Amino acid sequence: MGILGSTGSYAYLEKAERKRVLRQALAHAGGVPVIVGVGALRTRDVLEMARDAEDAGAAGLLLALVEVAMFDYLGRIVDMVAEQPGADFFTRHANELGWMLA
């Protein structure tokens, strides 16, 4: 199940509202994996929402780019995520992602 994705009103929700949507979705998912959108204008907000989603038990993240300078934005996210413990799956696919963006 995907929530807070790349369409709809997610961009207008405050952090507390997004957390409430996340909790409700996970509570009603019935074991279905939940993918959570974490797109935001500020990198700090993206990282906070990603941590919230991970802590809540989300199965994955969706990062919809909402910034004009998307390559710089995505590059900063990639660098930060790749440095996190347990990011081995991500780092194995980072080069493939780079080629897809080129």
Task: List the SSEs and their pairings.
Layout: E1 2-3, H1 15-28, E2 35-37, H2 43-56, E3 60-62, H3 70-82, H4 88-101
Parallel strand pairs: 1-2, 2-3
Helix pairs in contact: 1-2, 3-4
The percentage of residues in β strands lies in: 5-15%
CA radius of gyration is: 14 Å
The biggest sheet amounts to:
3 strands, parallel
What is the strand tally?
A: 3
- What is the multimeric organization of the chains shown? single chain
Share of helical residues: 40-55%
Number of domains: 2
Number of H/I helices = 4
State the distance separating the first and last CA atoms: 29 Å
Summed over residues and divided by their number, the pLDDT gives a mean of 80
Order of strands, main sheet, comes to: 1-2-3
InterPro entries: Aldolase_TIM, DapA-like
Pfam families: DHDPS
GO molecular function, one term: lyase activity
Would you summarize the structure shown here?
Helices cover 54% and strands 8% of the residues. With 102 residues, it is mostly helical. The N and C termini lie far apart (29 Å).
Folded structure, characterized:
Pfam families: DHDPS. InterPro entries: Aldolase_TIM, DapA-like. GO terms for molecular function: lyase activity. The relative contact order is 0.14. This protein has two domains: 1-66, no CATH class; 69-102, no CATH class. The mean pLDDT is 80. α1 packs parallel to α2 and α3 packs antiparallel against α4 (88-101). Strands 1-2-3 form a three-stranded parallel sheet, with helices on one face. The radius of gyration is 14 Å and the shape is globular. With 102 residues, the protein is mainly alpha-helical. Helix content is 54%, strand content 8%. The chain is built from four helices and three strands.
